[in-house]
Amino acid sequence: MRQAGAYSGILSGGGISGRTGPHLLPLARIKKIMKKSSVDVKMISGEAPLVFSKACELFIEELTKRSWKLTVEGKRRTLHKDDVVSAVATTDVFDFLIGLVDLNENHRAP
């Protein structure tokens, strides 16, 4: 028989925090952004903000890990904007962010 996965509690409400559920980002804010994304968006199911919240958490975690790796390689203990820019520049998955960061400003070669 198949066992429940690590994220099976997300939609059932059993999360890491009894007060707010499994999400760390504010669901009301996510829902507001989703509604403002298009005039065609009228209603949003209850599960959609949860899924977007988890996707955002995973995205932030991955970008932070890659940035932190560059911080450690630079023998520093403080993560700087340059580390995030370098992580974006050297990772193909983050190509959609290139227009949001200035690659020429304080950017060191990988």
UniProtKB/TrEMBL annotation:
GO-annotated molecular function: DNA-binding transcription factor activity, RNA polymerase II-specific; protein heterodimerization activity; RNA polymerase II cis-regulatory region sequence-specific DNA binding
SUPFAM superfamilies to which the protein is assigned, alphabetical: Histone-fold (SSF47113)
Keywords: DNA-binding, Nucleus, Transcription, Transcription regulation
Every Transcription factor CBF/NF-Y/archaeal histone domain range: 25-88
A cellular component annotation (GO) from this entry: nucleus
Pfam families: CBFD_NFYB_HMF
Chief location category: nucleus
Protein task: Stimulates the transcription of various genes by recognizing and binding to a CCAAT motif in promoters.
Protein name, UniProt field: Transcription factor CBF/NF-Y/archaeal histone domain-containing protein
Organism: Deinandra increscens subsp. villosa
